[in-house]
Specification:
The chain has about 475 residues and is an alpha/beta fold. It folds into 3 domains: about 60 residues; about 240 residues, Endonuclease Chain A (Endonuclease, Chain A, 2-Layer Sandwich); about 160 residues, Endonuclease Chain A (Endonuclease, Chain A), CATH 3.30.870.10. It is built from 19 helices and 19 strands. Helix 2 crosses helix 3, helix 6 runs parallel beside helix 7 and helix 12 runs parallel beside helix 13. The two termini are about 45 Å apart.
Length: about 475
C-alpha cells in the first residue's frame, strides 16, 4: 500500500509539474517570437514537457547576450556616422527605398563606381584569393565560418605566410564551433600561430571564461579583404571541396560554390563587416588605423556597379537579410531567380515568392537534388508542392554535387550574393552578409551561372513530385515542423 501511495504521489507531482511547465510556456515562449516558431516550441513542450523545456532553456533564446547586442548597436551607429552616402539616383524609386532600409538597419549606404567578377570554380576562387594576398602591401583580413589547411587551401595558407614574412599584417577570424570540429583543426590553427597570423575565434562557447550564448548561434560569414582595395564575398568556406569529411567522401559529395571578387568603394563595406566582428571578438578597434576612404579605392574598369553590403544576424534587432530579400522580391517586375542550398522559408517568404508568380513573373528556384543535412533537406522538400502549384520552376542540381551557392537575381539588373541561405537559421540565428548589386553587367554574369545550373541539372515537375512515396513526404512534413524551432 505504501508503494502504491508513493507511486501516486510521484505521478501527481509530475502531473502538476507538467501542468506548470505548460502554463509557463504559454506565458513566456510567445514573447517576441514569430507565431510559427512559438507554435513549434509550444507543441514540443506540450507533447514532451520535460524534454521540451530542457531544450528551450538550452537553445530557446535566439538572441545574443545583451552586452553583445549593445556593442553591435554602437558599432552600427559608428559606421553610419562615418559612411558617405552615394545614393543611386538612377535606380528605380522602389529600389532606392530598399537601399534606404538597408542603410537604416546596418549603417552602410549604397555606393557606386565598383566592379565585381563572379568565380564559380571551387579551386579557382581560392587561388584568386591567394593571388590577391600575394599582392598585399599593408594588411589582409580573412573571415570564414570554416577555415582548414589542406591540399585545396595550401596555396591560400602559403600566401598568408609569405605576406607576414613581407611585413604585412594578416588577421583571421573563424567560427569557434564550425572550425574546431573539422579534422586536424588543431594543426590548422597551430600553423597560423607558427607563421605569425593574428587570429581569433568568432562566437566562442567557453562558459568557464564567461563566453557563452546559445551554442547554435554561429558566425556564418565568408570574406577576404586585401589592403582595402580588393575583396571577396560569397558562399565558399576555406576548406576542401568535400569538407575533409569521411561521410562526404564515402558518398562522393562535392560542394559547388559562387564567389565574387569586388573592387572599388564597396570593398570598404566588406572590410567594415570584418572590422566590426574583430572589434566585438577581440576588443581591438582598427577602424581608424586601417580605414581606407572609399574614394581612394578606384575599381578596375568597368566600374559601373552600385553595391551595398548588408550584414545581418542575432546581434541586430531585426532580420536585415530577410527584410531585404522580401523587399526585392516584392519589387520585381519580370524575374525572380533564387539559388539556395537550404531553402526553408518562413510564411512571409513563401507568400512573396508565390505572389510573384501570381503577378505573372518568371520565378525559378535552384536547389540540390541531394541533401547533406537530412532534417533541412526534408523540411525543404515540404515546400515543393506549394511552389510548383503556384508556378515556380524548380531545378535540381545533380548528384554528387551539393549546390552550396547562395544568390538570387531580380529582373535584369539587380542581384544578391553572399553567405545567407533562405532559411530560418540564416534569417534569425546566424551572422550573415549579403551583397546587393545593381548593374546589368553583373546580372549578365549571374545569368551565365544560372544557365550552367539548368544545363547540368533537371527540372522537377508537379506530376513527378506527386508520385513521391508517402514515407518521404511524411518525413518532409515532420521536419518542416521542427524547422520552425528558433
Amino acid at each position: 500500500m505504501d508503494s502504491l501511495l508513493s507511486a501516486n504521489v510521484v505521478w501527481s507531482v509530475l502531473a502538476v509539474a507538467a501542468f506548470c511547465i505548460n502554463v509557463l510556456a504559454l506565458i513566456y515562449i510567445p514573447r517576441d517570437r514569430k507565431p510559427t516558431a512559438a507554435m513549434a516550441w509550444l507543441l514540443l513542450v506540450f507533447l514532451l514537457p520535460f524534454v521540451g523545456i530542457a531544450l528551450y532553456l538550452l537553445i530557446g533564446d535566439f538572441r545574443l547576450p545583451k552586452k553583445r547586442r549593445d556593442e553591435q548597436q554602437r558599432i552600427t551607429a559608428m559606421i553610419a556616422e562615418r559612411a558617405v552616402d552615394h545614393s543611386d539616383a538612377g535606380a528605380p524609386r522602389w529600389l532606392q527605398r530598399v537601399a534606404q532600409q538597408n542603410h537604416a538597419l546596418t549603417g552602410l549606404p549604397m555606393v557606386g563606381d565598383s566592379s565585381a567578377q563572379l568565380i564559380d570554380d571551387y579551386q579557382a576562387s581560392i587561388d584568386a584569393m591567394a593571388a590577391a594576398i600575394d599582392s598585399a602591401e599593408r594588411y589582409v583580413h580573412v573571415e570564414f565560418y570554416i577555415a582548414a589547411r589542406d591540399e585545396t587551401t595550401r596555396g591560400f595558407f602559403d600566401a598568408m605566410e609569405h605576406a607576414v614574412a613581407r611585413g604585412v599584417t594578416v588577421r583571421l577570424l573563424a567560427d569557434y564551433i564550425a572550425s574546431r570540429k573539422i579534422p586536424k583543426s588543431v594543426e590548422t590553427f597551430a600553423e597560423l600561430d607558427r607563421v605569425g597570423v593574428t587570429w581569433a575565434w568568432m562566437l566562442p562557447v567557453r562558459p568557464f571564461r564567461g563566453e557563452y550564448q546559445r551554442p547554435d548561434l554561429r558566425n556564418h560569414r565568408k570574406l577576404v579583404v586585401v589592403d582595402g582595395r580588393v575583396g571577396f564575398v560569397g558562399s565558399q568556406n576555406l576548406i576542401s571541396r568535400d569538407y575533409n569529411s569521411e561521410k562526404n567522401i564515402a558518398r562522393g559529395l562535392m560542394w559547388q560554390e559562387l564567389v565574387s571578387r569586388v573592387e572599388g568603394p564597396v570593398v570598404a563595406q566588406v572590410d567594415a563587416v570584418f572590422l566590426s566582428d574583430w572589434l566585438i571578438e577581440t576588443g581591438e578597434d582598427l577602424s581608424s588605423a586601417e580605414r581606407v576612404p572609399p574614394t581612394a579605392v578606384p575599381a578596375s574598369p568597368p566600374a559601373d556597379l552600385h553595391c551595398q553590403m548588408v550584414p545581418s544576424g542575432p546581434a541586430y534587432g531585426t532580420e536585415n537579410n530577410l527584410r531585404m530579400f522580401l523587399s526585392l522580391i516584392h519589387g520585381a517586375t519580370e524575374k525572380v531567380i533564387l539559388t539556395s542550398p537550404y531553402f526553408v522559408p518562413d510564411e512571409a517568404m513563401i507568400y512573396a515568392i508565390t505572389t510573384a508568380c501570381q503577378r505573372g513573373l518568371d520565378v525559378q528556384l535552384f536547389v540540390s537534388e541531394l541533401g547533406d543535412q537530412a532534417m533541412v533537406y526534408h523540411a525543404q522538400r515540404s515546400y515543393y508542392e506549394t511552389l510548383l502549384r503556384a508556378g515556380v520552376r524548380i531545378f535540381l542540381y545533380p548528384a554528387p554535387y551539393i549546390l552550396h551557392a547562395k544568390h538570387f537575381s531580380i529582373d535584369d539588373d539587380i542581384a544578391v550574393i553572399g553567405s545567407s541561405n533562405m532559411d530560418i537559421r540564416s534569417f534569425s540565428l546566424n551572422s550573415e552578409m549579403s551583397l546587393l548589386v545593381r548593374g546589368a553587367s553583373f546580372v549578365a554574369q549571374m545569368r551565365e551561372v544560372e544557365q550552367k545550373y539548368r544545363s547540368a541539372g533537371r527540372e522537377l515537375t508537379l506530376d513527378e513530385w506527386l508520385r513521391e512515396p508517402a514515407r518521404s513526404t511524411f518525413l518532409d512534413g515532420l521536419f518542416r515542423l521542427t524547422s520552425a524551432l528558433n
